[in-house]
Predict the structure.
Amino acid sequence: MSSQKPVLAVLTSGGDSPGMNAAIRSCTLAALQSGYKVIGFTHGYYGILQNKYIELHEHVVRDIIHCGGTILKSARCPEFKEDESQQQAAKNLEELNVKALIVIGGDGSFNGLIQLSRYYKGQVIGLPGTIDNDIDGTDYTIGFATAVETAIEAVDKIRDTADAFERIFIVEVMGRHSGFLALNVGIASGAEQIITFENFINPGKELKKIAEHISLCKKQRGMSSYLIVAAENLWPGGVYRLAEDLGNYANIKCTPCVLGYIQRGGNPLAKDRILATKLGVGAIRAIDNGKTMLMIAECNRDIKEVSLAIAVGHTKTVNKDLLQAQESVLDIAALAKQQVL
């Protein structure tokens, strides 16, 4: 690619999240204003390996801030873990005269960026785009707020059916190995139980706790709906196995429901559009200042620059106040004791 202007590249990688398009838009518009030629690699890191990209002009990104998904498409690229692929990617970037690369994604995408930097000498910047909200150094990730709202809307509808038939439903939400989605969705939807990584002990004790709580609720309320929100990848065998286990353990009949990929879709909420815009502008500012190996984050409403190595550390935990709040509002046993007294 021959161009007098410095070239800046953008790609989206890993699982898609609402607000990725808003991030592409802000990166592009801010970069154009700074005098860059902007290209977008398609299908994540595959785009770099295969030299597949589109030029990002103002008219391309002008009206995408409200759209879910990503116009650049996304993918997971196992081949990129190999040194040979990283070297080829660095070579392709250099031949295209790419001065800086911005990757919008989660920890897997950031790890790829860290490995690429061993061979690619241009600037590399990450933007946290994942519904899991499991990236260290930032209060929220692009797409988390929308995913929570989407899941809440679905759980509210499930509650309607649960109320109509006075049934017990177990709803599985995404989150991979993080409880941010499960805890926030569970609290906002008034779930009777939330099973998440932060409060999970072991299957035996959890079955006992759930069964006892369901029994107490029946004594206090009579027949009624009952919702359990569970994080994926937590219960051995998933929520269908959990429903089976509850049936075998305490003759409790439950209906499992997996929300799945619905949580990734939909137009981003204003919160995610604004966050993506701020982070994209922050990325171009960091590049203009000659910085590299950073993730652009938001902490306490301020835009911060965080080392990519710190961002993938997996030390971020859910707010303990949320866990305590959930335990307090659902302590049926304590309420029962008060009524006896």
The two ends are 80 Å apart (CA to CA). The longest helix spans residues 144-165. The CA atoms of residues 208 and 249 lie 8 Å apart.
